[in-house]
Write a structure and sequence with these properties.
The structure holds two protein chains of two kinds. By secondary structure, chain A is mostly helical. Chain A is built from 15 helices and four strands. Classes of the chains: A mainly alpha, B alpha/beta.
């Protein structure tokens, strides 16, 4: 009987998650013996979990509406960056700057999401491949746009010439404004970014509410069985557009939250890899390309970002040579994506 | 072993997962004889042929019992390739041709004539070149034999459908030792003239001493071409008759007749013929394989109307068309008002529900739970199972579960809980969930398509009983599409037979088997039927469905006549 219960437990959590949790546990145990500053690392992990939370959440509506992983997350991210750069250029800072960035980026993301959703409806079945290259293309096009953007604020513009800078600092604007909101300082180094967590929690809660609403359930139905959905009078195409739009909006809001915590807006090629990080996190959390829940988002973000935070310093201690830790990060990140994608077919 | 026979199959039995689909079939075939194989869909014709050809699905499911004696020796054919090598060929209903290849290449496929070249001398036979000249000449000869005036180097994809069938035949007769050819509904997609030519070709082939098994639903073709007719029903050999001893009418009756006893036929009820709930005029549905081509039908309020007919004739297209699942044209009135076309939501809002024949794709979300599946339609169409919490309208999980539990009880769905995934349930229980989902939408008119396909007897009874109860107690009008005539006759007030995408006629559940058989076999049957000798016709009507005198006996074979011709 006991044996069966163990099996059920393993089946419920999934072997890959058990392995990853085991790996994380080893990291946690190993850290004190490596002479690392544990408290600081924990604080870093909290920060990263909060930073990426909304970006990972952006995958959920895309998956549930049947367009699978939103590999074109850079599209939404770009919308967020546009909002951010405009609000900065107009000289807004503090809470006002943050809200204005979000406010500007949302309508842009809605339009982009609808248009891109319409495109995806024409290429059903190969969304992820198309999306990956859409992301690349959009990032490349935006490189030109950033260059040509007529910004006047000296903090945003290149020191010489026109266009947006590669990196725009948020110091003195709204750097870590959410992180510091209601911040809990347990010790000097161990800090819980309450405001950031609350923001992520709010986004997750709203998504959870949406998925339980009539529209949410219809979207889920369209995603899991398009034929049945059509037969029940659900417009699959519209639900997919809705899913894509939500995903883009979350991508836009997500990058602003990410940036305020990070302290910089990064333009040009920076949005390129955002999709992969988010995909890896939600897959680690137990989602498949066909099904995801808010739990998968939270669990996946916590696992993935903890591993990323803890692995690098430990790898650095063990192998201090050059950029090895970065290589380890790339191997882990892409390894997880690769593994999850090979499992993708089984869910259907 | 009788030397006169090319093929003897003795007591062939086959089970699919405990379901007996062949119950001791025996047949004997002489060289040059044409034997027709008739029976409804699911009678076991295809399975029998699969046994003969040693198809994989037979071996993978535990093989078969019985003996096959081919060409004087007991054989156990284990692959279609072996069948081919022994001289058994098949002309398929769906063409097995490679579109981009020429006619010659298709005819010679996998039997190419090789010519050594430099590579093959070094690396062996597999790299030999093809002897195109000889291959073309061979192909030409085969094409000439069946009188097909086509260039042998044309590619197949440009050919009209009718010609493709002949290329298949040319391929089969090109095989040098061909002794038996099976034609699986070869005329299904042909025009009348092409079909006639094909029948002539079949006769020609048989005159050359090749035995032919001819599977067809078209009884007039069978009467024209065959020497003997074997009627199959529910995996049993009902009887084998000589053509001279039978008639279209009798075959139709034998094919359908189930010996339905009076008790299991639905009781007659008096319903108002003028109270029309749904009126369909000139319905055309573009559903692949089940197209409807101009069907008109009235459904009376409060009745259970059956839609019957053979597979592929369009009966399934009717409900799918009305619900707007496939592109539809025509005119549909529901309660006197035009029903929106090609607009499922509009139809569902009128409280018309549909239980699809395609359980796994249209009927259910397999990875979702029972309660989610049951609720999804009503949630979408009627806004059921919702509650307001502050500014948010949310799913009412409690109400949904309560309703699902009630449904599980009503239908006796066997499950662990209502949260169980539908994909884990058995076919019968899945079907019950489909039905529960439709009923949750509280329909006035319910379309049920193939409700008992692939489910066990227990579940069948529950479902059919429930349909009747629903009709009698709640006054729901039901249109039930089914391939099982017996089932239709046991619950329906009237049965409409759909043939060739049109309404062939409407019968009472207690109409004679003969009429069902004739209608299902198509419009041309009636003409054929009326030209029959009068005494023969009278006889077959009076005979009981299962006891024609000749039944059960295998007639003496006398095909010498044909050869001498």
């Amino acid at each position: 009987m006991n044996n069966r219960r163990v099996k059920q437990f393993v089946a419920a959590i999934g072997v890959p998650r058990l392995i990853i949790m085991g790996y994380l546990l080893i990291l946690l145990i190993a850290m004190p013996f490596m002479g690392l500053q544990i408290e600081m690392l924990y604080t870093q992990a909290f920060g990263r979990i909060g930073m990426y939370g909304v970006l990972v959440l952006a995958m959920l509506p895309a998956i549930e509406s049947g367009i699978k992983m939103n590999m074109a997350l850079p599209l939404g991210v770009i919308c967020g960056l546009i909002g951010g750069v405009l609000s900065l250029d107009w000289g807004f800072s503090g809470w006002m700057g943050l809200f204005l960035a979000v406010l500007i980026s949302i309508p842009i993301a809605v339009v982009v999401g609808i248009l891109y959703g319409m495109l995806l409806n024409k290429i059903k079945g190969s969304e992820m491949m198309i999306a990956t290259y859409t992301g690349y293309t959009a990032v490349a096009i935006m490189c030109i746009v950033w260059m040509a953007m007529p910004v006047n604020n000296a903090e945003v513009r290149w020191p010489q010439g026109n266009g947006v800078r590669n990196i725009v600092t948020l110091t003195g604007k709204y750097e870590k404004i959410l992180d510091h909101f209601l911040e809990i300082r347990i010790t000097e180094e161990l800090v819980i970014p309450t405001g950031l967590f609350l923001t992520v929690a709010l986004a997750c809660f709203l998504m959870w509410l949406f998925m339980r609403s009539k529209t949410g359930i219809m979207m889920k139905t369209a995603g899991s069985n398009p034929v049945l959905a059509e037969a029940n009078g659900i417009s699959v195409d519209r639900m997919r557009i809705l899913g894509m739009t939500l995903s883009s909006v979350l991508g836009a809001v997500g990058i602003i939250i990410y940036s305020q915590s990070y302290g910089f807006y990064q333009f040009y090629m920076a949005p390129l890899n955002m999709a992969f990080i988010a995909v890896a996190a939600i897959l680690i959390g137990g989602a498949t390309v066909g099904r995801a829940t808010v739990f998968h988002v939270i669990f996946g973000t916590v696992l993935y970002q903890s591993i990323m935070t803890f692995t690098l310093p430990i790898a650095n201690v063990i192998m201090p040579e050059g950029t090895l830790s970065e290589i380890v990060r790339i191997i882990i990140q892409n390894g997880i994506i690769l593994y999850a994608l090979t499992k993708a077919g089984e869910s259907q | 072993m009788d030397d006169g026979y090319i093929l003897q199959m003795e007591d062939i039995e086959k089970e699919y997962y405990g379901n007996r689909v062949l119950k001791g079939i025996s047949l004997k075939l002489k060289p040059g004889e044409i034997m027709a194989l008739v029976g409804e869909n699911g009678a076991g014709k295809s399975t029998l042929m699969n046994v003969l050809f040693g198809m994989e699905q037979i071996r993978n499911t535990g093989g078969f019992r019985g003996r096959v004696i081919f060409d004087g020796e007991e054989t156990h054919i284990t692959s279609p390739r072996e069948a081919m090598e022994r001289g058994i060929g098949m002309v398929h209903q769906e063409f097995m041709l490679l579109p981009g290849f020429t006619i010659t290449e298709n005819i010679k496929l996998n039997r190419e004539i090789l010519k050594p070249n430099l590579l093959s001398r070094v690396f062996g036979k597999r790299l030999s070149g093809l002897d195109h000249g000889t291959m073309k000449a061979d192909a030409r000869r085969s094409l000439d034999r069946i009188g097909l005036e086509l260039a042998e180097n044309e590619t197949v994809d440009g050919l009209p459908v009718g010609f493709m069938q002949f290329v298949e035949i040319a391929r089969e007769i090109d095989k040098t030792n061909m002794k038996l050819i099976v034609f699986d509904e070869p005329t299904a997609v042909l025009t009348e003239i092409e079909a006639q030519k094909l029948l002539d070709t079949i006769e020609m082939i048989s005159r050359e001493g090749v035995a032919v098994i001819f599977i067809s639903h078209k009884l007039d073709e069978i009467m024209q071409v065959s020497d003997t007719v074997m009627v199959m029903r529910d995996g049993e050999n009902v009887c084998t008759l000589r053509k001279e001893d039978t008639s279209v009418g009798q075959l139709a009756e034998l094919m359908v007749g189930r010996g339905v006893d009076a008790g299991s036929i639905a009781q007659k009820r008096s319903l108002d013929n003028d109270d029309i709930l749904l009126s369909i005029r000139n319905l055309q549905v573009d559903m692949p394989g089940e197209g409807v081509k101009g069907l008109s039908l009235d459904v009376r309020r409060g009745e259970i109307l059956g839609l019957g007919g053979l597979a592929g004739q369009g009966k399934i297209g009717v409900s799918n068309g009305v619900l707007g699942i496939y592109p539809t044209e025509g005119e549909i009135l529901f309660e006197g008002e035009p029903l929106p076309m090609n607009h499922p939501l509009g139809v569902l809002k009128k409280r018309i529900a549909f239980v699809s024949e395609d359980r796994k794709n249209v009927g259910l979300i397999l990875e979702a739970s029972i309660e989610e599946n049951i609720a999804v339609g009503a949630l979408r169409v009627n806004d059921r199972f919702l509650k307001k919490t502050g500014p948010f309208t949310q799913i009412n999980g409690k109400e949904r579960r309560k309703h699902a539990e009630q449904m599980v009880q009503d239908f006796q769905i066997k499950c662990v809980s209502t949260r169980q995934k539908v994909g884990d349930l058995s076919g019968g229980n899945q079907q019950k969930v489909c039905m529960a989902k439709a009923l949750t939408m509280e329909p006035k008119l319910l379309f049920v398509s193939e409700p008992t396909r692939g489910i066990d007897i227990g579940a069948k009874e529950v479902l059919l009983d429930y349909l009747v109860k629903l009709n009698r107690e709640q006054g729901v009008t039901i249109v039930m599409t089914s391939s099982e005539l017996k089932e239709l006759r046991s619950v329906c007030d009237r049965i409409a037979i759909v043939t060739g995408g049109k309404l062939e006629g409407i019968l009472e559940p207690d109409s004679p088997d003969l009429e069902f058989g004739l209608m299902m076999s198509g419009a041309r049957m009636e003409q054929e039927f009326s030209t029959e000798p009068v005494e023969n016709r009278g006889e077959s009507v009076e005979k009981g469905p299962d006891t024609p005198e000749t039944c059960g006996k295998i007639p003496d074979h006398d095909t010498e006549r044909r050869r001498q011709e």
